[in-house]
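#struct-help
A.M.: can someone run this one for me? Single chain, 353 residues.
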Amino acid sequence: MTSNNSKIRVRSLYFEGPKIVNIRETLIERPESGDVLVETVLSAISSGTEFLVYRGEWPQELTVDDSISSLSGTFSYPLKYGYASVGRITQIGPNVSPDFLGKLVFSFNPHETHFVSAADKLIVLPENLTPEAACFLPNMETAVSLVMDGRPLIGETVAVFGQGVVGLLTTALLARMTVGKLVTFDIHPLRRQASLALGAGRCFDSSEEFTTVNFEQSLQCPTGEDCRADLTYELTGRPDVLNQAISITGFSGRIVVGSFYGSKKAEIELGRWFHRSRIKIISSQVSSIDPHLSGRWSKSRRLELALRMIAEIKPERLITHKINFSDAKRAYEILDKQPEETIQVIITYGENS
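D.P.: on it. Structure tokens below:
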């Protein structure tokens, strides 16, 4: 970081167009009243929503994210995007307690070397969390929200399609509950291994021939018993998987759709099993609390729970790549072209950034 009079030189990652990533230098003002300057330590790339931006699959009529101030506004290139930054407070403005200096904080901020934020918009991290663990906070909060929206019951058979980061964290949370059978699906062996390590009872290769019959047989249900899932999660980001989710979900079961498909269309088969099954398809998105729960639950309470779950589950073991900010373009290329080798890719910010 260098300064020009009262301004601070910052390097930021911009999406210039589909699969075009560049780093730009800009000047920002020093912290004003109530603000602090954060020097980024690391940030996490989302292979879900963020990759819709990277691939140009974001719905043109949809705002970027009204719930995060740094991502407000309509979608258009060039665009800064990202929401999992961990850094240290290096400067404070007037009317900010000196106690903030040096604090490790989390922010829903795009990928950049430094940023100024209102102090009260940052999440001061507990001392027991490393930066690597803390970067999972948005995805853990999403996983908590998914579990709350699905409302799993004791003894239920639960299926999770998609074992990316959100799917794996959802699996880890469900494994800590008293569900009956927990089965998961993913096309990549690395992620299937991680799923089993986090508590899944079975993890299927979803690229293989798949039918309701072999799903039920694999669970070794007693003859004549309905062995379809009571609760199913669709977390792959692939619209075609929703039909697989319907096919294995039992009568009056629930399907929670946590995937954001962007501009991709979902061709749902509603004329077969679904029509007579009374299956409920539930939309789940972390930016809000289910109205049925909002009388007791707030976003701050849910966030505190997510922080506790990070400390217990230790998701930093899911980091497969650490790539310096100066080479960030390569991080996106790896995720795009070699997804079978990745789970969580982290951008680091060191002296060579």
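A.M.: thanks! The chain has ten helices and 16 strands.
D.P.: also worth noting: The CA atoms of residues 87 and 333 lie 25 Å apart.
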